[in-house]
Amino acid sequence: MGANASEGERAQLELEVPKRPDEPVVFRSEKEMPPMAVSLGTTLVNKTGSWRYLRPVYNPKLPPCNRACPVGNDIQGFIALILKGKFREAWELLRLTNPFPGITGRVCHHPCELGCNRRQFDEPVAIRLLERLAADEGYRGDFREPVIEKRAERVAIVGSGPAGLSCAHFLALKGYRVTVFEAEAKPGGMLRLGIPEYRLPREVLDREISLVEALGVEIRTGVRIESLEELEGFDAIFLATGLTRSRELKIPGITAEGVLQGLEFLKKVNLGESVRLGKRVAVIGGMNTAIEAARVALRLGARPTVIYRRTRAEMPAIADEIEAAEEEGIEFRFLEAPVEVITADGRIHGVRLVKMELGEPDESGRQRPVPIPGSEFELEVDNLILAVGEEADLSFLPEGVKFNKLEEGRILRLEGAGLKAPVFAGGDLATGAGTVVDAIASGRRAAEAIDYLFRKVEEGPKRRPKTVPFTKINTDYFEHRPRIKGPVLPVSERIKSFKEVELGLTPEEGRREAERCFSCGRCNQCDNCLAFCPDVAISRHGDEYEIDYDYCKGCGICAHECPRWVIDLVEEGK
Q: 1 pLDDT exceeds 50?
């Protein structure tokens, strides 16, 4: 202390500092008081939280991609694991809701990307490619069958397509003894017979089917069920036979040599059978089967033309597949429909078409195509492939069976006709022509319905949290970055073989793409709330945050600065 210090200054400096942060400063006399207002202790003694009328609360929301996924994948969760390089964990997380991420990572129509909030900022995250990456990098051949307590009930599943295998997987995880019956020589259904190898390599399909068998599921191939009586002794039955018959097109000359059915054509090619085509091939239809048939015909050396009675905008086929077909040089003719197959000596020589225009909406909600009188013309072709839709073969069911819709139509319950065991149906058999991921979701719902049938125990009410809209994303914290597009085979190479067209992302590309995810409604520990809190009322413990409401004034800065709407402001007392 300086020799010239005043008496008041000496008293202030000699003042005893409180030993505890919450201990108040007590002045013994007026002389000890400072000449101006200063803080000699801690502000913690003043619990300013009492001023608050709004309370910030950490409340995770549902990302819109999760909401849009038919199987309910935790998309934000597995992408966050990829970002950390944890591919195995990402694969395991995906398999909690979808047993076949390697398959859907290649052939899914990815409705999740339509829901992605990033779509309104620049481009959606490449979720399907990231799912494929997690499946391919996460699986390393060291899968171990989990220890599952077996139940006494036996379940028969007819059909080993995506719905049947999905149901088998989830039932096996619950301990049921499952047997799958498949009419063909190998399991997979339309995954094997309808989807060509350039989209779904057989080693990937076989790998993921083997994981279902590793759970103890028995798959009996080469067994065609002709009657439900053959399944007597099973405690429940799930029908997942799909749509296995092509719909007929009733026009003159349709039985001529050289006219092929789309499904049968794809099945022969996928089984390695020889199929001879001429150069000029017309494919009738606008669904996935039509696009697949045209792309396969191209690889067999033909020049295919897809003919569809509506416009491109109304085509129900997966948009990515239409674009791929266009890239490969396949011709599309819209607003045209066949009215007659022109024949010569019993063989197709051409097809007579009529031009169409769109009229009033039909039962599907799309505008009905209407023929234009006097607009008929001929097109010379060597082959005609019909892909106008598929239907189910229900000849094995007894007469008088009634179908009751369950789970919003995802699965059916069969009743009547003296059925001895409870019978359910799912996949395309229940929902009509759908997609692989829809069938997987249907199989999972069927497994839940069968499990409830025996245990009478539901997993409890399913909470449906709020979905994060784009308007709740604080885009100030994100930079525009282009979507990483996975490499593909050059067109000149892909049309000459059945090699896989898409080559997938590398782990480094996957991590960079994962960085683009907004992580909507889910905390990713950015620390904005902690850094911006003016009352220092927020603390972090590992990956969790804690708000000290004794000092939080409810200013709302933390909620405003949260980039992804994890924090809500709620009125006190509510």
A: no
